[in-house]
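I had to read the description of the data format several times before I understood it. The format is easy to grasp once an entry is in front of the reader. For illustration, here is how one protein appears when written out as sequence plus structure tokens:
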Amino acid sequence: MRSFLNLLKREFRLFWGNKVLRLLFFGAPLLYGILIGYVYSKGKATDLPVIVVDEDQSSMSAKIVEMIQDNEVLSIAALRFDEAHLSRLMIAKKAACVVIIPKGFETDVLTKRYPEVRTIVNTANILTANYASGALQVVLGTLKVGTQLETLRKQGTPEHLLMSQYEPFRTTFIKKNNRATNYMYFLWPGVLATVLQQVLLLGLALSFASEFESGSFRTLIRKTNSTLQLLMVKVIPYLIMSFVIWLMYWCFTWWFNIPFTENLGKLTLVAGVFVLSVTFIGVLVSIIIPDQLKATEVLMVVATPSFMISGFTWPLSQMPVWIQGIAQVIPLTHFLPAFRILIIEQGDFDLTYPYIGNMMIIAAVGALLSFIALYAKKRKLLKQETVSA
């Protein structure tokens, strides 16, 4: 037991002795947590620039302009009375949308000629385009309802019959889970989980590879002949340090006033399984590839696209089957849905069992293969020493 504890102390000293690794392991989560937190602290897009082309210049078109300006999502960047140089103006004003009110609009509305208000949506940025077009639909839809109701009133329809005449049935949309459609609540956790996975893989890429390169692996196996102890010596320090990062993330939720408090204990358990599965992947690659640079490169190739193919932002079901297969062996793919269930949707813990089970399988397979690979490396080295002797 004493030798095992001494090996753990040695592993911590090796970690703290590597300034670059130390800075990346703790600095990257800290930097990304603060950076992403402040980037998305507003939570939702507001005051998006739109251009209004009012060719009608009537009281009704003026009402549209007023309603657009009053909407918190929209801000009129330019008001024009013709379509001259419109494409250039969109670029210059960085406009998310252009609303074109045709000439004779008010007259056509009053005479039931059904004029058309055209909206040009700049989809170069899909996020701002969706926000702006959605807000414009609300504005124009509100005006349309108001106009139709006013027409019915003028036709003598009794007040108590107005809604039934205009609206044959009612529709109600209830927002559940992130009701404010706060983009930070959606994106921030996924990015930080990705960062945690990357720094773990980066650190563990060097765990055994550095020992092989420096020749200190011989010294290591002289201190303990147990393959399991050798494996645990490399794994346990990263599990402990990952918990420190997890506490750092919790502090970020307090700092940025993010209401992630429900099911926090259960999520911590899930995060522990996630860290364990990532750890054994990193250790396995570090054993198989006894070169620090190459091991790091391989693990970064695995880690870099993991957020994109995890299904967190784009549904996994919409991806090709072969990509879905690759995604299944990446722990992040299973952690992020479990996070969403527990924190965003506040679901029951048993709903996360399939994802926990998948991460446990990844961890078990990684641990078994790591044990076999490390045992083979140790046996080969001991055999070489015996022959040399």
